[in-house]
User: What shape does this take?
Amino acid sequence: MVLLCAKAENRYIHKFADEFGDLKLQGVALQKTAFTQPDLLVLYGSSELVSPVAGKASEFFEQGPTGFRAFPVGKPGASSLTIMQKIASLGRYIEGRKVAFTISPSYFLSEEVNHDYYEGNFSPLQAMELTFSTHLSPELKRTAARRMIQYSETLEGNWTLEFGMRRLAGDTFLDRALYAAIWPLGKLSNAVGRAQDHIEAGLHIAETIEEKNPKPHRLAGLNWKEILRKTSVKVKATRPPIAPRLTKRPKGSRDADFLKILKEADEWEDFELLLSTLREMHTDALLLSMPLHGPDLETTGVSAEARKAYGVELNRLAGKYGVQLVYFSQYENDPTFFADASDHPGERGWMLFNKVLDEFYHQSQKTNK
Assistant: This one.
């Protein structure tokens, strides 16, 4: 039964590229299958992936114009800690594979990760895979467990997960002995969870999908210069006028507060956990960061000089963990890049993202050491 379901997933996985249901986001089977497909590029992110904006990667690459489709995975509130758990749950399926991420700067401008958002994105199956993973170092699993148990409400009702994670976090001699004792039960629970995940995916395919993946219509290449020019003209012609800013604080008056919050944000610790996981899983990763909203922050008293600190830290961590980073800081004062006041690229912003994704997909595979 499980093997039949796995075959169905492999045959119809492209049909899930535009879906954002729990089966795809909270499970592991469909994400694993996506990474086995040479013409799918998995793209993790948050609400920007589902925002109603023309030109999103899933829409733009839907017909595989240059040989691949985007396979977005994410929903509102998906921060680094939950995305790290998704990556950790994939095991050998992600090793050596290309994977891309969109980064929301607003997560780094809040001292704590929103508990409701975290709980809404939490997957017990993915957390179990991390807790009893053989693909991550004990040190990384321990650090992750210590962060995850801070959201204790997500562990309630799952004795094996909670016990295993707390033993990982404790790391005393007794904790290590008890973790070793529960290891067989944890691995058995994961095997059962994976089987159930496959069966649910197979049933969903049988109930809703009628035809096989269509073959993409591949082009020799895309004229990105012309695509970006036309998109820019279209956006400028159709964008509504920006409401005037009624009040403006003195320049730099909130720099100290901004830098303090930025420095102390929990998201940095979680972001490092994600980058550590990507490195230990030997992935070829690309990070795409939205620019900060320059005019809005300027109005509230945050200077351009202070805003540079976000990009400096992003670049430092990307270099430390050997991942590619494209930070679109040069567009922070360009209203045509954004769809709204949140971390959502508009059509022009997405076209700039898409150009980088296209180039990344066609790059030679990075050699991981």
In short: The first helix runs from residue 2 to 12. The chain has a mean pLDDT of 89. The chain has one domain: 2-361.
